[in-house]
Amino acid sequence: MNSKSETDEASRGSEASSSKTSAPDNTEEESTSGLCSNTVTDHTQDIMKRAAAKQLIERYFYQLLDGCGKPNCDNKYCASSGEARNLSPNEAAAEAIKLFYKEARLCDTLPNKVPRTESSPCHSSSSTTCNTSSAKDKEDNKEKEEAPESNPTSSKESTSKEMEPETSHNVTHQEEPKTRSYNNGAPLTEESMYQLCEDCLQTKVRQPLIKALGEAFTTPATLARSFACKVVENNEAIPGKSSDKESKAMCLSSDPDKDVDSVTGPELDVASCRRAFQYLAKVPSENYSSALVTALKTLADNMLIDLRITKKLLMDDAVNCFVIAFEVPDLGCSDYLEIALPALCHAAEHLSVKGQAKLARIWAQHCKDSLRHILETLQQLITLRVISTNYTRSFQVQDDEVVTCATKFMKIVYYANMLAGSMESNSLREEPIVINNQQDPLENVLGHLYPPTSMKGSKHAQPDDPLAIELDIHVLDARKPYLPFEEFYNEPLSDTIEMDIDFGNFKTEISKGKKFAFLKYPFILTVATKSLGLYYENRIRMYSERRVSLLHAVVGAAPPMPFLRLKVRRSHIIDDALVGLEMVAMERALDLKKQLVVEFEGEQGVDEGGVSKEFFQLIVEEIFNPDYGMFTQQPDSLTVWFNMTSFETEAQFTLIGIVLGLAIYNNVILAVNFPMVVYRKLMGKKGSFEDLADWNPTLYNGLKDMLEYDGSDLEEAYYQTFRICYQDVFGNAIFHDLKEDGDNIFVTQENKKEFVELYSNFLLNDSVDTQFRAFRRGFLMVTDESPLAVLFRPEEVEMLVCGSRNFDFNELEKSTEYDGGYTSDSQTIKDFWSIVHSLSLDDKRKLLQFTTGSDRVPVGGLSHLKLVIARNGPDSDRLPTAHTCFNVLLLPEYETKDKLQDRLMKAINYSKGFGML
Questions:
Q1: N or C of the chain: less Cβ packing under 10 Å?
Q2: Are 161 and 121 in contact (CB under 8 A)?
Q3: Catalytic residue among 73, 107, 345, 885
Q4: Cα separation, 108 vs 103, whole angstroms
Q5: pLDDT tops 90 at residue 608
Q6: Which range (18-22, 505-509, 877-881, 891-895) has the least confidence?
Q7: Which helix (H) or strand (E) holds 856?
Q8: Rounded CA gap, 111 and 79, in Å?
Q9: 298: left (phi > 0), else alpha (psi -120 to 50), else beta?
Q10: Separation of alpha carbons 324 and 274, rounded Å
Q11: Where is this region: Disordered (predicted)?
């Protein structure tokens, strides 16, 4: 029987020998083998070395984090000495590896937090016989037995502590099995994944890897416990300990008063999970992809049953399963897109709102690098499904569950993308403006007669997204998302959607919630597609107003005008338009929602859209001219801004807002050059410092330099107080104190951020508050019941107002249709496009103005213009003419190209006025 001293000596000898075998110089290899040198294979020796190295590194790790427990320890690499700096777990792990290689000193006493090993010095999984010690010896050696846990994938590693030359053990060994034994049904860990992948690469045997992945991924409860984060003790993560119910809350959040379901931290170690799948990516995918697809499909089916029927799966576990499932590397097979991914999206549809919110938070905080891969995979699924499916009127894309479930799942990614980016405070909101539209007494009757198309009260029928409410997030607060919003557009889907059907589903879903509508997920649709939905909304409103007039006539009441008619003089267009709109706004503001019909006095043109286009262009040119005094032009950005010292009344700015709203409502594009902050403010978000970038780039760069200046002499370098200076319309200097007694308060390192915020707030909000509130009120008088704010972001609203900036006339040529005998092969048509492509940009704008009534490119590009060129007789001296309401160009068949160019240039340069042909 071994004495206690012999056991201690053997234990110390084992540690010393392990340390030496792990060093770069392996000259002591023979001394480590002892009596077993003739029986242990080279492979077993490698395993022993790895286990010993891991054991020592873990001891260094605990020593750096927890210390040895001895007061006033003299080891500088021990936390108990007070000399070692405080390290995070990641830093301690890196430092432990460094200490291992330079064979730094280890304290004799082990930290009491080291996990137990599966085998003790007197027991191993091999057929080893040994003498037993007394109960007292076992009690004395308890601390020695608490060695770090060895790799569970190898039963031979636990024997390394017994093979010492000093011991009198009679050791016999069985031959090592050819296939390793793994714990069946056990959760996956980073270590086990690494070992599985290494064995697969070395032995070319893939069954153990496939079996382990299959057993974990087919069972939600097992997968949810995989890659578990560690128990948190004293605010530090301790590797090697699984989290229990109490430690789970600490792992999720350090705030004990916070609901576990609502916190942002994951229960699992996402970094460990990602590293594990990086190991898996090194293995050729053909070794496991097919089996993993099957396992993911089974996982999704089991989760669907648990979430929808049995309700046994905890929300936290379901979220963990989705996080792990979408960390799986690219499988490189079509089965994943066709089978596994649709099933996962279908299962995610049954996650609670809280579960979806938690998944979005985890992705935003811990999986930023995975967001692009997840998004691209979903986009690929939707695109392949759309282009490979023949949709009909009886089976629309809205009926395709694969596409709809993927779209719903993409919404979680959409919000996670915003959270992962740069977010602003949601307190920077414009004050709400209440529009009291005068209600017609017969409108209630109309609502009963035409319930499907009556849009009254629609602003109350569009509730906020429950997921957005749960996350307390709004798209206006996303200053810069992690991925650009444009990457969420799916053009094949947008081109496939029949918007009339989708819009009908959209209105039905609001009231009944039965139909799927992509308009409820506007992030996936292009601006051109969404603008068509807005067009249907506005047109139905216009037709509804016409029915009101018809109902008045039926009951014998004085019928109101079915249109919003404006009669203006070209020489007094501002006065006539503003007076006419002011009368309408005062008498019955609802008339602003009728279709606009403009008549120029003394001209015969009938307004089917073209006359209105020119009306808007002319009035915009007048109103936004700096000489008019309502707006000023920023010299750096060439944008227009509200004149903070304007003498115009609030009513004038209200009428300008009405004009902008009418342009959107009547689907007319304006030549307005507002900075982006105007559209953000119209949507309800106040301006902030970042908005200065496109409003006044010079000022923005100067203030940014101030914020980044870290010198102690900032006060002397800038010599700036909290008093600022600006000029009125006459060039007079006006001073304003951002704070009380601001001229005596200098900007310093301590208050420079406050100065920048106050300065930005004054320029973008306070200084133009009166003018902008009136302007926004007029805008909302037209658009308050429109889904504009629901469907469009501020950047997209700017595109609705100003159109596209892409003047690609090649697209226009491809989309143009011909009539009256012309074809694309006609010589006159060939000459026409040859002339057009050689024009300057200014002349191209004039051509658009001549043919369509607007020199702006419609949303989606010139391919959406649908120009028609019709033959207008044989060769003659007549100039080309146009029906701007219908985008029709009437072009005589000129004999020569030079004559065509001469007549065309004269037409586009002298093209004001409307007459009957």
A1: C
A2: yes
A3: 885
A4: 14
A5: no
A6: 18-22
A7: none
A8: 10
A9: alpha
A10: 8
A11: 1-42, 115-186, 238-263
Considering the entire predicted model, what is its pTM?
0.71
Is the pLDDT at 29 greater than 80, yes or no?
no
How does pLDDT run across 703-713, given as a tens digit for each residue? 999 999 988 88
3-state secondary structure of 491: helix
Query: How far apart are the C-alpha atoms of 891 and 871, rounded to whole Å?
Result: 5
Residue 442 phi, psi dihedral angles, 5° rounding: -95, 0
Which two tokens mark 280? 């898996």
* Sequence-ordered strand ranges (E) for 787-859: 817-819
Please say whether the beta carbons of 530 and 519 come within 8 A.
yes
Residues 6+ apart with CB under 8 A from 693: 700
Over residues 432-476, the pLDDT tens digits come to 777 765 544 444 444 443 333 333 334 434 557 899 999 999 999
- Asked if 82 contacts 69 with a C-beta cutoff of 8 angstroms, the reply is no
The answer to whether residues 349 and 405 touch, using CB atoms and an 8 Å cutoff, is yes
815 in helix, strand or coil? helix
Please name every residue paired with 344 in a beta bridge, in sequence order, or none if there are none.
Answer: none
Name the H helices within 816-854: 827-837, 841-852
The string of pLDDT tens digits covering residues 184-240 is 568 899 999 999 999 999 988 888 999 999 989 998 989 999 998 765 444 444 443
DSSP 857: B
Where does the pLDDT of residue 753 fall: very low under 50, low under 70, confident under 90, or very high at 90 and above? very high
Render 627-674 in DSSP notation, one character per residue.
GGSSEEE-TTT--EEE-TT--S-HHHHHHHHHHHHHHHHTT-------
333 is catalytic: no
| Three-state DSSP class for residue 232 | strand
CA distances 20 to 15, 16, 100, Å, are: 9, 6, 10
Q: How far is 4 from 20, CA to CA, in rounded Å?
A: 25
CB 463 within 8 A of CB 771: no
Q: At 155, give phi and psi (nearest 5°).
A: -75, -15
Average pLDDT over residues 662-673: 86
- How far does Cα 710 stand from its chain's mean position? 33
- The residue count of the chain comes to 917
Interval 720-736 mean pLDDT: 85
CB within 8 A of 887, min separation 6: which ones?
851, 852, 865, 866, 867, 868
pLDDT band at 716 (very low <50, low <70, confident <90, very high): confident
Cβ contact 789:683 at 8 Å: yes
Residue listed under structure tokens 């939707």: 382
SS3 state at 595: coil
| pLDDT at residue 689, rounded to an integer | 93
One-letter amino acid of 300: A
DSSP letter (8 states) at residue 429: B
Whether residue 263 has pLDDT greater than 60: no
Percent of the chain with pLDDT over 90: 28
CA–CA distance, 570 with 575 (Å, rounded to integer): 10
Pairing, β 868-871 against β 733-737: unpaired
Q: Which of 495, 482, 472, 365 is nearest to 425 (CA)?
A: 472
Q: Counting beta carbons within 10 angstroms of the beta carbon of residue 770, is it exposed (0 to 12), middle (13 to 18) or buried (19 or more)?
A: middle
Residue 184 confidence (pLDDT): 53
Helix-then-strand count for the chain, H and E: 38, 14
At residue 726, what are phi and psi to the nearest 5 degrees? -145, 175
What is the C-alpha to C-alpha distance for residues 165 and 31, in angstroms, rounded to an integer? 8
Stretch 425-431: mean pLDDT? 82
Location of structure tokens 């539209």? 437
Strand residues in 218-292 grouped as ranges (E): 231-233, 236-238
Give the residue-averaged pLDDT of 674-693: 92
What tokens does 158 get? 């636990």
> Is 80 exceeded by the pLDDT of residue 110?
no
Answer yes or no: are the C-beta atoms of 18 and 52 closer than 8 Å: yes
Parallel/antiparallel/unpaired status of strands 640-642 and 422-423? unpaired
Enclosing H/E stretch for 881: strand 881-883
For residues 684 and 476, give the distance between their C-alpha atoms in angstroms, rounded to a whole number.
Answer: 8
